[in-house]
Specification:
286 residues, alpha/beta, di-copper center containing domain from catechol oxidase, two-stranded antiparallel sheet, 33% helix, globular
């Protein structure tokens, strides 16, 4: 059984609301703490660990809700891409914070001028970092060693297994990253299903741009940059909610977002989940 607390879901108004920040705006100290917590998280090899939770998305568990999903023995285009991933991010973040309650997930704004000039954030490409004790260590945001048995992956032959570091393609053309106008157009969409689908399309493009394991749903969540990418997707949804509300079909509100303990209804308010997003500000180059 996981020891992770469900922050803000116990009705305790004294629980702190943590702030998710643009990864490029973290101070060196906060980035070091995030990396140190991630390193500890990645070292856990049971159901509380990074590898186990990353495996919910693709191999070996295949819970991810993309496009279609079985629901009450029917295949529905239920449009719960953003809902499932919000629950997933929350579950992941709670386990990460078990190693340092002061940290939170961060987002990567791929529309920013910094991203359009440098590509992936340096936080995810630096080979090493200095931990809070002053020691130089490999950067855990650069890669993760996957160790997945072949029987958990229907795309692999029985003789195959994943036992290697995650990989990324060389940097793609920066002009292929979305411009701010692309995201701004999403905020104008009033229909829930159309918004969910259009945001998922933008999301797909980033996975393809990063490439490597991020370009394959089988392994995407093992790459540490996955979480910063999806944090930005969730941030965009939270801004859309402020403008458009929650026009989700009522028959979907009580759908379970397995394997997390949440239903759609329970993840509609990020404040109730215990986090918020920092307001946009100029990015700094670390």
């Amino acid at each position: 059984m996981s020891l992770t607390k469900l922050y803000k879901m116990n009705g305790d108004s004294n629980e702190l609301v943590v702030t998710r920040t643009n990864i490029s705006n973290l101070s060196n100290d906060k980035l070091s703490r995030l990396r140190a917590a991630m390193e500890k998280f990645m070292a856990v090899r049971d159901e509380r660990g990074y590898g186990h939770i990353a495996g919910f998305h693709g191999t070996p568990d295949w819970y991810c809700w993309h496009y279609e999903k079985s629901f009450r023995n029917l295949i529905l285009r239920a449009r719960l891409f953003v809902a499932w991933h919000r629950a997933y991010l929350k579950w992941f973040e709670d386990h990460l914070r078990d190693h340092d309650p002061s940290v939170a997930l961060c987002w990567w704004d791929w529309t920013s001028p910094l991203s359009h000039s440098e590509g992936k954030p340096k936080a995810y490409t630096d080979p090493t970092y200095t931990d809070p004790t002053g020691s130089t260590k490999p950067n855990p945001l650069l890669k993760f060693h996957m160790k997945v048995p072949a029987q958990g992956n229907p795309e692999l032959p029985p003789s195959a297994a994943l036992d290697r570091d995650t990989r990324r393609n060389p940097p793609g053309p920066l002009w292929r990253l979305p411009n701010p106008s692309k995201v701004q157009a999403l905020y104008e969409i009033e229909d829930w299903g159309e918004f969910n689908d259009q945001l998922e399309d933008v999301h797909d493009g980033i996975h393809g741009w990063v490439g490597g394991d991020m370009g394959d749903p089988t392994t995407a969540a093992y790459d540490p940059i996955f979480w910063a990418h999806h944090c930005n997707i969730d941030r965009i949804w939270s801004i859309w909610q402020l403008q458009q509300g929650n026009p989700i079909p009522s028959n979907l509100l009580d759908v379970s977002l397995s394997p997390t303990p949440y239903t759609v209804r329970q993840i509609l308010s990020i404040h109730d989940l215990g986090y918020e997003y920092a307001t946009a500000s100029s990015e700094v180059r670390l």
